[in-house]
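Researcher: Please predict.
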Amino acid sequence: MENEISKIFGIRAVIEAINSEKTISKVFLQKGLGGHLFSELNTLIKKNTIATSYVPVEKLNRLSKNGNHQGVVAEISPIKFADLDELISKTLETTSTPLFLLLDQISDVRNFGAIIRTAECTGVNGIIIQKQGNAPVSSDTIKTSAGAAFKVPICKVDHIKDAIFQFQAAEIQLVAATEKTDNLIYDIDLTQPTAIIMGSEDRGINPSILKIVDKKAKLPLQGEIESLNVSVACGAFLYEATRQRLG
């Protein structure tokens, strides 16, 4: 495994990479950048729903090792993302009790990597993330996942709701991890086809998503702190699913 994610820089180079259907993880843009070529790039970024971040020129200098970046640096993902329709179909062909994981904008790359690692250890069939707002599959993500990011299929969707509707159409129950319920995870039947949803570190699962899930569940907290780290909570949910399925 390489230590660094492949990077390309320069406006025209990034435009060509997007047009060539390279899997772009994220594009870093210089604040205040303008001009015809930048406008063309920006249109492509929006059309392809690529994650972006506006940063000072000093960061671009570091990312490009002081190369001629022209205000643009892009990271090429080290993995090829799976198609959600194909993943659901192929999984249902091989198992009657699939287990999926949906991440509603997990922003910390180390949390993301730890979650991927636990997902691989618990036999998760696939992880679904949003194109915008989720931590990228970066070198830190790969390292923290202990290489599991190369083993568990990962899908990107425009919005988590898109995936929810596809899972519901396939009769896979959606279980949201949230403190806004009286139901404990131990009371939910996880032996049936299931997709577990974990929310972001700061706000949890989006309220609009909570309205359309099938079930909500929480973990019992005995101390004074009101929440767990998301990767720890995810591990508890996934291993409860494992316990029920082994039992």
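Model: The first strand starts at residue 7 and ends at 9.
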